[in-house]
């Protein structure tokens, strides 16, 4: 049975692609890779007030969190994630926890998945990962998690993912409906519970 859902932050819940690209261009000459990362994070944080949730992100998080814990996982700095929680309380209020990577230790998406599973104390097949990258989706499946792809327009997901059992939802609304149907099928919510409520009508 599904007991938790983990979601990417940037490009899945937050529309930040253009700002991070600008930050990396601005910081390209800052020094080594760690210095570039720190400089880019500073650049983004100074302009974070211009960021907004991806359309449908708030409805998705609230709908899922009404039934199971939602964990947000990101390789971005903890200070960046903390600032976003202050700027977007409507998005983050239902989130149970946020797992961040440590760039200095070169934590990978796989490491984040391990940390999420350890923090939840759950078997991998009880956790669904909602992610926007091919590598992250494949890593989640390698660990035994179930995965759903939600591609960003700038980074389409390959159709081959379906061949390894990873469904792709074109929008967050579609992902929310898919998850609620899974909840209903697996008994997380009563079988007679209707999906047709407000923003999640089917």
Shape: globular
Given as residue ranges, the uncertain stretches (5+ residues, pLDDT < 50) are: 196-202
Number of strands: 7
Oligomer: single chain
Calculate the mean pLDDT score and round it: 89
Q: What does the radius of gyration come to? A: 17 Å
Strand content: 5-15%
Read across the widest sheet, the strand sequence of neighbours is 5-4-1-6-7
Largest sheet: 5 strands, parallel
N/C terminus separation: 23 Å
Order of helices and strands: EEHHEHEHHEHEHEH
Q: What is the percent of helical residues?
A: 40-55%
Summarize it.
By secondary structure, the chain is α/β, with parallel strands linked by helices. 41% of the residues lie in helices and 13% in strands. The strands form two sheets. The protein has a five-stranded parallel sheet. The chain has a two-stranded antiparallel sheet with strand order 2-3.
């Amino acid at each position: 049975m599904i007991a938790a859902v983990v979601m990417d932050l940037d490009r899945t819940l937050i529309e930040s692609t253009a700002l991070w690209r600008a930050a990396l261009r601005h910081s390209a000459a800052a020094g080594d890779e760690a210095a570039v990362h720190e400089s880019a994070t500073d650049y983004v944080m100074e302009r974070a007030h211009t960021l907004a949730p991806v359309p449908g992100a708030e409805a998705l998080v609230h709908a899922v969190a009404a039934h199971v814990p939602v964990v947000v996982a990101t390789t971005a700095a903890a200070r960046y994630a903390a600032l976003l929680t202050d700027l977007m309380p409507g998005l983050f209020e239902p989130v149970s926890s946020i797992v961040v990577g440590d760039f200095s230790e070169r934590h990978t998406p796989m490491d984040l998945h391990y940390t999420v599973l350890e923090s939840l104390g759950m078997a991998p097949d009880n956790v669904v990962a909602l992610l926007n990258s091919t590598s992250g989706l494949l890593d989640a499946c390698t660990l035994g998690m179930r995965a759903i792809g939600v591609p960003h327009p700038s980074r389409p997901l390959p159709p081959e993912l379906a061949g390894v059992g990873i469904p792709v939802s074109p929008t967050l609304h579609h992902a929310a409906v898919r998850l609620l149907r899974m909840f209903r099928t697996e008994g997380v919510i009563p079988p007679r519970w209707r999906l047709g409520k407000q923003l999640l009508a089917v």
